[in-house]
């Protein structure tokens, strides 16, 4: 998918080979588990991606991975942990992993194991954005996602709590808007690109294709919005 630019810490720090696998040298005996590393992997895509293409690629992986190997609840936990880690909320990411009994022998989500010993591999593009990501020509992620539905349904306001801090926001939407459309509205209101947003309600990740009415959000309850960094900085 792409090559790693590198994460420089020390001789005992992480290493990524040409296959995109992040590993950490052993200092003595083999450890079965390590705490999640508090750092972002920087990498460069072989083919530059737009924000929308990266999001679509991620959604495709997360939607199809459970069909091939592993347990869906573990994949859901890994997805939530990846979102939290990308937003640099490593404490939340670690709590999610611990709650699902997921071990990370190398300290990275690229290789994980559940309590049954099943191996899970998360591609690097699901963990951070490439440093050579390009902007959408239109400045929007997708006309289909941002266009107004023919029948928006009943009007309502969603209360959002952003991981960036500040007071809760009330976002006017309609019951038959998709979460992707709501992200676009939040983008217009707060200038937060949709690909940076991950919405959670009741501990569950809300997918882009989900309708607001399908999420069954109780009036007055808060939707958590994890906001990722705008873009990774190139190494110095």
UniProtKB/TrEMBL annotation:
State the organism named in the record: Bicyclus anynana (Squinting bush brown butterfly)
Protein name, as recorded: Ubiquitin domain-containing protein 1
Ubiquitin-like domain ranges (all copies): 156-232
Which parts of this chain are annotated as the region Disordered?
A: 1-32
Q: Which InterPro entries match?
A: DC-UbP/UBTD2_N, DC-UbP/UBTD2_N_sf, Ubiquitin-like_dom, Ubiquitin-like_domsf, UBTD1/2
List the CDD domains: Ubl_UBTD (cd01794)
Ranges annotated as biased composition (Polar residues): 18-32
